Amino acid sequence: xxxxxxxxxxxxxxxxxxxxxxxxxxxxxxxxxxxxxxxxxxxxxxxxxxxxxxxxxxxxxxxxxxxxxxxxxxxxxxxxxxxxxxxxxxxxxxxxxxxxxxxxxxxxxxxxxxxxxxxxxxxxxxxxxxxxxxxxxxxxxxxxxxxxxxxxxxxxxxxxxxxxxxxxxxxxxxxxxxxxxxxxxxxxxxxxxxxxxxxxxxxxxxxxxxxxxxxxxxxxxxxxxxxxxxxxxxxxxxxxxxxxxxxxxxxxxxxxxxxxxxxxxxxxxxxxxxxxx
Length: 277
Prior knowledge:
The protein has 277 residues and is mainly β. The chain has two domains: 69 residues, SH3 type barrels (Roll); 196 residues, Fumarylacetoacetase-like, C-terminal domain (Fumarylacetoacetate hydrolase, domain 2, Alpha-Beta Complex), CATH 3.90.850.10. It is 12% helix and 38% strand. The chain is built from six helices and 20 strands. The strands form three sheets. Strands 1, 2, 3, 4, 5, 6, 7, 8, 11, 12, 14 and 17 form a twelve-stranded mixed beta sheet that branches. A five-stranded mixed beta sheet has the order 9-20-19-15-16. Strand 3 and strand 4 form a beta hairpin. Helix 3 crosses helix 6.
């Protein structure tokens, strides 16, 4: 991945021993020659960390060049939730929902940056959905929207891949378990960024280099704290949980051989090829 995609801002990070955290920190999860670990991305160098990403961790002396490692999904979520119809661009002339409409995606659907979205057997309409994904950093149960801001650890890019025929077609499934949950249907990454004003970030989806979605997270019907608060009234959120916050505008089909990119301001580009089964 290029310097442009990750940005050129070099950031210092603090250990859990009490140094002051910078305004913005960029976390990655990566696989090197002999290790799989979390780290802090500073320009083109990763500083490896050990411990609890969402609690106490220590910055080690180990460093890795970005070009020498494989970036993975930036966290390992206990559960994945997603929001439907959360941008006016997507809703169009329909009446906006009165509350966030939530559904699940299985953790087995996760896919790392650069790895393929695999076209499932029998699929006919596999669509992209570029989204900002929020990652929870603290346990949240029945929190207010104001309190919810304190439990959101950071944000990253997500692609809520969907098989529309199974989801909405003439012979649609009763539940969205296939339409939203097939293996590789939840690409996530490449960087988990803490400290951004996630309420007004530009988000863009490109298919084979062509812009197919473009919006600001300020155009959400329900902002991220409102979504987190709503979910927490009924379900305890825990560190590492991921929430895909909705896709802006119309979506469209992908096919094997295509490449889809989700770019979120301040985060970078999540790029995945589409492959046949």
